[in-house]
Design brief:
Strand content: 15-25%
Strand order of the largest sheet: 6-7-8-3-9-10-12-11
Mean pLDDT: 88
CATH class of the largest domain: Alpha Beta
Largest sheet: 8 strands, mixed
Bound molecules: adenosine-5'-triphosphate, magnesium ion
Number of domains: 2
CATH topology of the largest domain: Rossmann fold
Number of strands: 12
Structural class: alpha/beta
Low-confidence stretches: none
Number of helices: 13
Distance between the termini: 38 Å
Length: 346
C-alpha cells in the first residue's frame, strides 16, 4: 500500500466507557471514522456527543486507568494506538498527530516565555541547536501572520490576546510537521473576525503542507467553510457522514437537519447551533434503539431497534472511494425534497 492510501487516522467500531460510581458512562458506541492524508474532516454534534472523547482517544490523552475500550480499534498512520507502549505513543504525539484545544491557556505553560516553549517543542523531535530552533520558531510565527514574531517570542502567554495565543498554538502544532492536526473547537472562544482569520490560516497551511485536519466543532457554518467531509455525531455514535456539501445541502438524518434548521442565511462562523428540543440521552443508560428516538418527529416502533450506519448508495460503496460515500443510520431518512428545505441556508 502506498503511504497515500494509509489513513492518517483510522477508528473502527470504537466503543469506550468511563467507569463511574455505580456504573459507567458509555461515551462512544461503535464509532468508525477515517481521515486520509491531506483531507480536512469535520466532526459536528451537540455537547456530550463524544467528539472530544474520540479526539483524545486517538492520541491516548484520556486519563490512564480512567476509561475502558470495550470494542474496536484505533490506528494512526497504520499503527495500533491502543496496543502501543507509552513511550511510543509519546513519540507519535506532535509528529503523527498534533492537537489544538479551545483554550490555548490550558495548553501553554503560563510561567514560560513563548520562545522557550516553542524551542522546547521543536527540539523534542529534532536534533537542532537552540539558536536554529529559535529561528524556526520565528519563521513559524511569521507564517501565522503574526506581525512582530520576535516580540511574541519574548512574551508570556498572559501578555497575548486570545487570538494571538491561538495563532501561537497553531504554529506549535505545525512545528513538528504532523501528518494530522486534531483541532478541538479551536476558534470557539474567539470573536468572529479573528475566528475567520485563524480558520483561513489553518486551511492555507494544511493545504500547503499536505497536513490532514480533524476539525471538531458545534458550528455548521465553520464545517461548510473548512471541511471536505463531515461526520455528524450524536450520543456516542456517528449518525450521518459524507462530503460536506452533500450533507449540509441535503441532510438525510432528522438530527442533522435539526442541527441545520434555524441557521440564518449566510450564517457567519460562530453562529450557535439551533437548539433541538429535548435532551441528549443519559450515557450511563444509553438507549438500545435509535439514540435520537425521544427527540425525533419521525420515530415509530421500528426505531426501537438500533439502525446501522449504512451507505446511501450501496453500489458506490463497493468502489475504492468508500470512505467518501454518504452513510446514514436512520430507519426513516428524510427524502431529498424534505432535506433540501433545510440545507439551503448554509
Ligand atoms: N473523564 C470522564 N469521565 C466520565 N465521563 C466523561 C469523561 N469525559 C467525557 N465524559 C462523558 O463522555 C461523553 C462525551 O463527552 P465529550 O467530551 O466527548 O463530548 P463533546 O461532544 O466533546 O461535547 P462538547 O461539545 O461539550 O465539547 C459525555 O457524556 C461526557 O460527560
Ligand atoms: Mg468537546
Amino acid at each position: 500500500m502506498s503511504p497515500d492510501t494509509i489513513p492518517v487516522l483510522d477508528v473502527r467500531g470504537l466503543s469506550l466507557e468511563f467507569p463511574v460510581f455505580g456504573g459507567a458512562v458509555r461515551a462512544l458506541n461503535g464509532v468508525s471514522l477515517r481521515v486520509m492524508p491531506g483531507e480536512i474532516v469535520g466532526i459536528v454534534g451537540e455537547s456530550g456527543s463524544g467528539k472530544s472523547v474520540t479526539a483524545m482517544a486517538a492520541l491516548r490523552l484520556l486519563p490512564p486507568g480512567g476509561y475502558r475500550v470495550t470494542a474496536g480499534s484505533l490506528h494512526l498512520g497504520g499503527d495500533d494506538v491502543l496496543a502501543a507502549s507509552e513511550p511510543v505513543v509519546r513519540r507519535w504525539r506532535g509528529r503523527r498527530a498534533a492537537m489544538i484545544f479551545q483554550e490555548p491557556m490550558t495548553a501553554l505553560n503560563p510561567t514560560q516565555r513563548i520562545g522557550e516553549q516553542m524551542v522546547g517543542v521543536l527540539r523534542v523531535h529534532r536534533r537542532i541547536s537552540r539558536r536554529d530552533a529559535l529561528t524556526q520558531a520565528e519563521s513559524l510565527l511569521r507564517d501565522m501572520m503574526i506581525p512582530d514574531p520576535a516580540q511574541v517570542l519574548r512574551a508570556y502567554p498572559f501578555e497575548l490576546s486570545g487570538g494571538m495565543r491561538q495563532r501561537v498554538m497553531v504554529a506549535m502544532a505545525f512545528s513538528c510537521d504532523p501528518d494530522l492536526l486534531i483541532a478541538d473547537e479551536p476558534t470557539t472562544a474567539l470573536d468572529v473576525t479573528v475566528q475567520r482569520q485563524v480558520l483561513q490560516l489553518l486551511r492555507h497551511h494544511a493545504r500547503e503542507r499536505g497536513t490532514a485536519i480533524l476539525f471538531i466543532t458545534h458550528d455548521m457554518a465553520v464545517v461548510s467553510q473548512l471541511c471536505d467531509r463531515v461526520y455528524v455525531m450524536y450520543a456516542g455514535t456517528v449518525v450521518e457522514q459524507g462530503p460536506t456539501g452533500q450533507v449540509l445541502r441535503e441532510p438525510r438524518h432528522p438530527y442533522t437537519r435539526g442541527l441545520l434548521d434555524g441557521l440564518p442565511e449566510g450564517a457567519p462562523p460562530g453562529s450557535a447551533l439551533a437548539a433541538i428540543p429535548g435532551q441528549v440521552p443519559d450515557m450511563r443508560h444509553p438507549p438500545s434503539g435509535c439514540p435520537f428516538f425521544d427527540r425525533c418527529a419521525y420515530a415509530d416502533e421500528t426505531c426501537r431497534q438500533r439502525p446501522a450506519l449504512l451507505p446511501l448508495d450501496v453500489a458506490a460503496e463497493a468502489s475504492d472511494a468508500g470512505q467518501d460515500r454518504r452513510r446514514l443510520a436512520c430507519w426513516h431518512p428524510l427524502s431529498p425534497a424534505q432535506a433540501d428545505a433545510a440545507g439551503g441556508s448554509v
